[in-house]
Fold each of these.
Amino acid sequence: VIKELSGKPVKEAVDDKTLPFCWKGRKPFRSIRDVSKYFKPLALRFSSGWRSKTQFEIPIEGYLLISSKGNVCLGVLNGTEVGLQDFNIIGDISMQDKMVIYDNEKQTIGWTPANCDRLPSSDTMSI
């Protein structure tokens, strides 16, 4: 994220302690739409064996939030800072519009885009 912000008119907001990483613009941000020209969707890649990799794409509204100071903050936390060793924590906003899928036979977990009004079809699942 920091590399992607290089050369853009966004600076680290060290005085904002809402989350570990926050940035400020030329003027306070009022919505995620205000920051959409500076940030891209975040892609996380998970290995599920030596053959396949699954990608979890998080739209900007799923990993960023606007602080009360008008800054934009990263909603992904370093797990080592809270005693989780090398695990990271993504916030509940990252899972909006996703249904978690459990495959007990393969002992895997995955997700699929979801419409809470109906169940997804099995061919759209990413496990």
Amino acid sequence: QITLGRATKDNQIDVDLALEGPAWKISRKQGVIKLKNNGDFFIANEGRRPIYIDGRPVLGGNKWKLNNNAVVEVRA
């Protein structure tokens, strides 16, 4: 699994989105990408702001299957 978010002194993240723009709007743990046993990848939004997959919003608390070449956007 890979975590996306904003790294802090007490919170380590695999992909630190703070390096890309206005970090204060990104949750410390914005999302998690997991590989299932059947080979499918899913992203779970664990933050307050939506994560966009191919332009469709995935709201906090929801997950979405990632297709090949999916575009994942975390907007601040």
